[in-house]
Amino acid sequence: MKFNEMRYVHLDIESLKEEICKSVNKFKSADTFECADTAFAEYGRLADTVETQTALAYIRHTVNTLDEFYDKEQEFLDENLPVLTEYFQMMSKALLESPFRDEFTKKYGELMFINEEMDLKTFSPEIVGDLQEENKLTTEYEKLLASAQIEFNGKICTVSQLAPYKQDTDDKIRLEAWTAEGRFYKENKEQLDSIFDKLVRLRNKIAKNLGLEDFTQLGYYRMRRNSYTKEDVAKFREAVQKYLVPLADKIYRETAERIGRPYPLNYADSALMFKSGNPKPSGNADDILAAAKNFYRTLSPETAEFIDFMFENELLDVLSKKGKAQGGYCIEIPDYKAEFIFANFNGTSDDVETVTHEAGHAFAGYTARNIFPAALRSPTMESCEIHSMSMEFFAWKAAGEFYGKEADKFKYSHLASAVKFIPYGTMVDHFQHIVYERPELTPEQRDSVWAELTGVYMPWIKLGEIPFYGDGCAWQRQHHIYSSPFYYIDYCFAQTVALEFWAMMQTDWEKAWESYKKLVGFAGTKKFTELVSSSGLDNPFDENTLRSVCETASKWLSEFDKTKLD
Ligand SMILES: [Zn+2]
To answer: Is 171 helix (H, G, I), strand (E, B) or coil?
Structure first.
């Protein structure tokens, strides 16, 4: 069904509450497993309907924020969905207490129960007020950043409008853009510190009220870390320092030489990779969409079916237009067994990333569309990001169509950026571990922690010179640190696995694709570490994994014909 024909129905919250209660009661009073399973399926359909209508409202609201109808619907849902959480939790509890747990485990696996148990540890009715306060503080942060009116080059820019200048090939313009942005953050430093300080104290208090040791533990439960501990993450950090940091440093030293800037680099110079600028797509939006269609059609029968489904049903909205919300996302519409991709094409390589990264998520969702229950359709975040980040590498096959004569430059910069990202991402996570272990740190002490970590994870960076960035405050512009604690390391694990796929592609492309399809096919039925091993990949927590991908990447980068880079 075409997206525009999908029917939006205003949710009747009172009758939903009743229906949920009815299926929960039916589930609880079932005297056979079959009866309980039927009630469980009924409940699943209700949950899918709520998710479908929520997704339709969200998509239509973000596609056109000026549409008054969906604006009101979005407001209605923001207010009423939290009310339903309590009712959905009734089923979670009933499931965990069910006398038929063994039969359910046999049919759907143990993972569903492990995750439900974790979710329950993150919530109790007494903390509702604190959770609302937490939301308020993160919204305050997002609003502060969105409100930025930065004077630059005689124009007034938002943070995202300033972004292209921060990569400008002109050294002076680039430095001025970073300085202008840094000044904005610096002017708002007191507020940024105060919001974060409140968040740390509040999160610590929430964890204590839930009977947990500290917020780190709660953060791990919130992220459903069901297959690794903070000790494993600490081991990963060590391997990053040992293998990734030296390789990334080598890349930066070579870059400094190529772009003619002094090493160590200031933040502004570290943002430029080539004198001629970062690689740009060769065509316009239509060309990119056509290239994407062709790529997925020739990649495999599965991706061909998927991409035809997406286009036939008009499930992509990627052009910027008046009234459209910022950013990009991929969202599931369960009742229609469909995924929707939203983006704002802007003529940079982000456009290609939309049709590789977001479509990687969408392909995984499409592959999992018939899995029941919903909880097993999608794995935890680090595994979801494997779907997308690895697809970016599979799309090297179509680099020529996307980037024309800049295809080689694109490949070099994509691989180099993947390598450079992991130390930064790991540092963001390390910082959060320190901050929540020592909630009593003052804002100044937090900045010193960041500055110290910069020396460990990003030795190519020279502090000083640029306001805010040079003062060791750059962590305050990383949204996740405020809004989604402990999320960031998920990208690093996913990038590591994506690099494993990339390395496999270099020797046996078919094997890499088969293994990827296998991983996507498991959807959310396995934990992260099981997904990786069942797909024939190495565990990122084994230091040999990082050592090996670094060796392959290092060899590829050093053998690259540098005369193609300017
Ligand atoms: Zn993603």
So the answer is: helix
Tokens of 376: 């097993």
Whether residue 57 lies inside any domain: the answer is: no
The mean pLDDT value of the chain amounts to: 95
Who's near 152: CB < 8 A, 6+ residues apart?
A: 162, 165, 176, 177, 180
Burial of 34 (0-12, 13-18, 19+ CB in 10 A): exposed
Q: How many domains does the structure of the chain reveal?
A: 1
Query: What's the CATH code of the domain at 185?
Result: 1.10.1370.30
Give, as one character, the DSSP assignment of residue 467: T
pLDDT digits (tens, 9 = 90+) for 306-351: 999 999 999 999 988 888 887 889 999 999 999 999 998 877 888 9
Whether 474 and 270 have beta carbons less than 8 Å apart is answered as: no
For the entire predicted model, the pTM comes to 0.94
Q: Please give the distance, rounded to the nearest whole angstrom, from the Cα atom of residue 330 to the centre of ligand 1.
A: 8
pLDDT tens string 186-219: 999 999 999 999 999 999 999 999 999 999 999 9
Q: Give the ranges where 280-398 is alpha helix by DSSP (H).
A: 285-299, 301-312, 350-353, 359-367, 381-394
Residue 185 lies in a domain: yes
CA of 354 to the centre of ligand 1 (A): 10
Identity of residue 448: S
- What angle (nearest 5°) sits at the alpha carbon of residue 358, between those of residues 243 and 329? 115
- Domain membership of residue 466 as a residue range: 130-278+413-483
C-alpha 563 – ligand 1 centre gap (Å): 33
Query: Does 193 reside within a domain?
Result: yes
Q: Cα of 490 to ligand 1 centre, how many Å?
A: 10
- Structural tokens at position 410: 């694109």
Q: How far is the CA of 324 from the centre of ligand 1 (A)?
A: 20
Burial class (CB in 10 A: 0-12, 13-18, 19+), 95: buried
State the angle between helix axes of 111-121 and 68-97 in degrees (0 to 180), rounded to the nearest 10. 110
Q: CA–CA separation, 362 vs 6, rounded Å?
A: 18
- Per the CB < 8 A criterion, the answer to whether 288 and 281 are in contact is yes
**Does 170 reside within a domain?**
yes
